[in-house]
Amino acid sequence: MEELRYAVVLEPCAASEGGGFTVTVPALPEIVTQGDNLEDALAMARDAIELSLSVRRDEGDEIPPSDADDARLEIVAVPIPAA
To answer: Residue 62: CA atoms inside 13 Å, Cβ hemisphere, count?
Structure first.
């Protein structure tokens, strides 16, 4: 079976919000999900990606190519503007 690989962005949720991670998929902007821990968040991302691709296929929409091989995360520091 052919496999597609997508980069996912995992952002920690505040402890006051229950912890865990919020997950987005840049190649599939309709996806926003979350999980209670890293393993759960990745499983939720996998399920959401599979569902999104299935809906796109059924509706005749484009399925984005794999992007994980080219994905890169960089942190950019910016100064806080003066008040």
So the answer is: 6
Q: Is the pLDDT of residue 40 over 90?
A: yes
CA 31 to chain CA centroid, nearest Å? 7
Which helix (H) or strand (E) element contains residue 34?
Answer: strand 32-35
Tokens of 43: 């499983």
Backbone angles phi, psi at 10, to 5 degrees: -110, 120
> Which tens digits make up the pLDDT trace of 43-76?
999 999 999 999 999 999 999 998 878 788 888 8
Listed in sequence order, the residues at least 6 apart from 43 whose beta carbon sits closer than 8 Å to its beta carbon are 35
DSSP letter, residue 33:
E
The DSSP call for residue 21 is E
Please give, one letter per residue, the 3-state secondary structure of 25-52.
CCCCCCCEEEECCHHHHHHHHHHHHHHH
